Amino acid sequence: MASYPEELRYTAEHEWAKVESGIVTVGITGYASDQLGDVVFVELPEIGRKLESMKPFGVVEAVKTVSDLYAPIAGEVVEVNTALVDNPALVNQSPYEDGWMIRIRPSSAEPLNGLMSSSEYEKLLEEQHA
Amino acid sequence: MTPTQTLKRTPFYDFHAAAGAKLIDFAGFEMPVRYTGDVREHLLVRESAGLFDISHMGEFHVAGSGALEFLNRVITNDLAAIAVGQAVYSPMCRPDGGIVDDLLVYRSADHFLVVVNASNKDKDFAWLKERCPAGVTLEDRSDDTALLAVQGPRTVEVMRGHVPDAVLDLGYYRFATGTLFGADAVIARTGYTGEDGFELYFHPRHAAAVWEGLMAAGKGVGMEPVGLGARDTLRLEMGFMLYGNDIDDTTSPLEAGLGWTVKLAKQDFIGKDTLVRQKEAGLARRLVGFGLEGRRVARQGSTLESGGREIGKVTSGSWSPSLGRPIGLGYVETPAAKSATLDAVVGGARQPAQVVKPPFYTKGSRKSG
């Protein structure tokens, strides 16, 4: 099974999050993009929208299926990846880098507390397939 | 998703696994849904050629005196109107006009090959067995039949030199027997994609030789294996039915737009009375095709509206890789079926849709006649 970047944190809904200079970047994992297949559209929130932890913030449409996107943390949307408008395939090609989806100014000081580490996420996937 | 140990495997499982295919449970079989990508595989079939493992489907051998009359009594299409070496597509109806399955019947000189959906194999066999008269033999040969399809405009380049030349000249829905990489095979100019191609039926012991032979033969045109995901978007672009989505026990072939397969002039067949009455009374609903602007896809179960009122539901919906927009099929009240537009409710919002008479994709290479 693929390994998941160590510097990121993960949710049970297959989102990843990383914090840089107080801003949290969010996307979906390679596992999720692989399960979805070719992504054709990502519906992203407006800048300024307030998000609640583990509530949907958008939708990812793939050829064969559609899936909600869940906010890993609470906060305010400060940026969205407009490159995904013309090139939604970035989510499949580069889920952890060019395929990032939104940036959030978190409501709490330790925003990634409670999210899974790379090895915990990997273990969750193994358990789901057991 | 990891399939459980109780799933069946086709004779080509090892090739799918070696190619890194994503395997899913389909009709109790561990089948490849994709290898490299849904869009890539779909476009490969439209532009060149793809190789499909469809061995999960069911094949029944029907023979004996009375075989033609028996089959003609259970299907709506007319076997007496086709020649030896020809195949026919037909629904098989219940007395109430609902569809048990859609299937192909291949007519040979001394027997018929009936090919059915994997998901309905047991149901179809029981249905036929119950109605099979003395003197007609009905055998389930699915476990002894491997089935591959080569589909795409460059199919002939793949097959040339590996099948008798006469096979390459077969018309659409015609078939012949021949040797394919050492296997005795039924080679049929049929398919589910709208492209030129062949469906190849042979004994599973030849599986490796035929798969490897075809892959090598297809190298020159870049042929690759193609999964069930792309198979579904290819057929949807043609407006072909998927049993369980667009047709089932509750839908009649007339409602589904399959009137061309219903030969009401034929002597009695199961469902005929109902279909005659339905035709005379007019249909309350019809299956229509639709296309959406934007990128949100109206999937199976989505509501279809006209003037703010629900008039039907989507039965099949997907992104169309060839058209670059969402398309779908759904049953709507007959008056709405005649309008040019309707609305699809997607993600809680009303999206405008154009009514399209399938096929959505009109540049397919399948032979006409």
Choose one word for the global shape of chain A.
globular
Classified in CATH, the superfamily of chain A is RNA polymerase II/Efflux pump adaptor protein, barrel-sandwich hybrid domain
Number of domains of chain A: 1
| End-to-end gap of chain B | 42 Å
Could you explain the architecture of this structure?
The complex is a heterodimer of chains A (130) and B (369). Chain A has helices at 30-36, 83-86, 90-93, 118-128, and strands at residues 9-10, 15-20, 23-28, 39-43, 50-51, 56-62, 66-70, 75-80, 102-106. With 130 residues, chain A is an alpha+beta fold. Chain A has a single domain (11-128), classed as RNA polymerase II/Efflux pump adaptor protein, barrel-sandwich hybrid domain (OB fold (Dihydrolipoamide Acetyltransferase, E2P), Beta Barrel). Chain A has a six-stranded antiparallel sheet with strand order 1-2-3-9-8-5. In chain A, strands 4-6-7 form a three-stranded antiparallel sheet. Chain A is globular, with a radius of gyration of 14 Å. The model of chain A has no long low-confidence stretch (mean pLDDT 94). Chain B folds into three domains: 13-54 and 145-236, Probable tRNA modification gtpase trme, domain 1 (Gyrase A, domain 2), CATH 3.30.1360.120; 58-141, 2-Layer Sandwich (Alpha-Beta Plaits); 284-358, Aminomethyltransferase beta-barrel domains (Elongation Factor Tu (Ef-tu), domain 3, Beta Barrel), CATH 2.40.30.110. Chain B contains ten helices and 19 strands. Helices cover 22% and strands 33% of the residues of chain B. The longest helix of chain B has 12 residues, at 207-218. Chain B is globular and about 60 Å long. Chain B has 369 residues and is of the alpha+beta class. The mean pLDDT of chain B is 96. Chain B has helices at 13-18, 38-47, 67-74, 121-131, 155-159, 165-168, 207-218, 228-238, 272-281, 334-337; strands at 22-26, 29-34, 50-53, 58-63, 86-93, 99-107, 111-116, 137-140, 146-151, 175-180, 183-188, 197-202, 224-225, 285-292, 303-306, 309-320, 325-333, 341-346, 349-356.
